[in-house]
Amino acid sequence: MAQVIQIGNSKGIRIPQAIIKQTGLEHKELQFKVVPEGLLITPLQQLRQDWALQVDAALAGQSDSADTDWLDVDLTEAAQADEQQQW
Question: Which Gene3D superfamilies match (predicted)?
């Protein structure tokens, strides 16, 4: 099992390699959460880490360019047009 060990002036947790591989924690940044049962260790979720690649891949799969015309709109001009429009 895992053990708390001395590392310099700090404490560390020595986790067996088999558990690291089984849980997919190898080469990951970890986050710790104190729960009533003890300590929960999970990989840090980096939101939107590769979202730009995913969007590009999704757009590359589309054949109709009409669906993507809105991506080329200059939002600055659109915002100014809305301000000038009288209701």
Answer: 2.10.260.10
CA 60, 64, 67, 72 dihedral sign is: positive
Q: Are 42 and 33 in contact (CB under 8 A)?
A: yes
**Rounded average pLDDT over 51-78:** 72
Is pLDDT above 60 for 80? Answer: yes
Q: Quote the number of domains for the chain.
A: 1
CATH of residue 24's domain is: 2.10.260
pTM of the model: 0.45
Return the number of other C-beta atoms located less than 10 Å from residue 74's C-beta.
9
**Which tokens sit at 16?**
């067996």
In a domain, 23, yes or no: yes
pLDDT in tens, 19-35: 999 988 888 889 999 99
d(CA 27, CA 43): 10
